[in-house]
Amino acid sequence: MKNILKAARAKNSVISIHEDIDDVLLVSTGFVKKVNKNLLILESISPEGIPSGDKIIKLQEIILIDIEGIYETKLKKLYEGYLKDIIYIKYTLLYKTDNYILETLQISKSKKLVITIWINNQEETLSGIVEEIQKDKVILSIIDSYGYFFSKTIFYYKYITRLEINSKENQVKKYLYLSKKK
Q: In the beta sheet, which residues pair with residue 153?
């Protein structure tokens, strides 16, 4: 384990450490800051890619290490973007009419902002960038949490029950999506 951690440090790789055999989804993710024969100092990164302090972990507690996987790659991109102040751009949303839903859709389309939409009070949401607004329909390019284009979805906007535009989660999706186009 120690040699793997040292190699990750040398390559400046983001890693995920699993310490709980009963909950392998519980992870600590970040950069290896230091490692000795007993301990690891992990420079932690939040799920949004924000630096979140150091974590000291006993090597004997580590049951699994993920290196350079899709999740780790995502967090490294977010971390690098965060440090360059790219992700957390604030837009002033100016509402000029009383049709907030339609206007929010138009803002998403014109500024290419990721939007999250709830339809008919369902728990499931659609997240993406509005591509087209027709008379009574919307065409949305769905983007997943890793910034990948998933599909184009067409729906009647009269069924929208809730919208979220330019949230931190949506900004993360947009940043990852745009970084894949480079």
A: 140
